[in-house]
């Protein structure tokens, strides 16, 4: 499979960069103990342009996928100049990773709000799965896009964790808790199991969608599978 190379920065980025630099006087005021920094017009414009770019990137990555989305497409959809894209992101991969970080954080907050924690291993799994699928229903295509395999996007070390790594670590930590509580096998390779669980959720969800299964049926089927595999 051919690899996509990072697109070079546009000369426009260099030309417009000074317009979006934070106000030096505001930074100096903060350093001098002046309290909260003053939000300048340039800072507001920079925050607003990033917000527009992130919203556009999210929409296009979900609808088209990574490979069919170009930086200029994101800029155009956001209603900003192409050079503005490179004020916020090094390249398309950097933008994609920002999108995936946002998706991971959103799902984490969603699970906290919905109190997706149970008292037993089975109840815990069921509540977590229910929250994940509910988030997916409310944000169609986001998790599928965010779980794009990083190995097909870049051969180098990005220095960032992909969603699959962060979600696998979440399940790993939870399984270690279940082991300590005496509910899961002590010999369990929790790290490998974490990745297997993430993969099973993704593929199980895709199967359920194609078969038009009800969310509750999907959750119960996957819950029973995990309990049988993990329960001591």
Question: Care to describe what's here?
Answer:
This protein has 232 residues and is mainly alpha-helical. It has two domains: 11-89, Homeodomain-like (Arc Repressor Mutant, subunit A, Orthogonal Bundle); 95-230, Tetracycline Repressor, domain 2 (Orthogonal Bundle). It contains eleven helices and no strands. The model is unreliable at 1-32 (pLDDT under 50).
Number of domains: 2
Computed structural class: mainly alpha
The CATH superfamily of the largest domain appears as Tetracycline Repressor, domain 2
Give the DSSP E fraction (strand runs of 2 or more residues).
under 5%
Classified by CATH, the class of the largest domain is Mainly Alpha
Give the rounded overall mean pLDDT.
83
Q: Rough shape?
A: elongated
Give the helix proportion (percent range).
55-70%
Low-confidence runs (pLDDT<50, min 5 residues)? 1-32
What's the helix count? 11
Number of strands: 0
CA distance, first residue to last residue: 42 Å
Summarize the helix and strand pattern as letters. Answer: HHHHHHHHHHH
Largest sheet: none
Short account of what is shown:
With 232 residues, the chain is an all-alpha fold. The chain is 66% helix and 0% strand. The chain contains eleven helices and no strands.
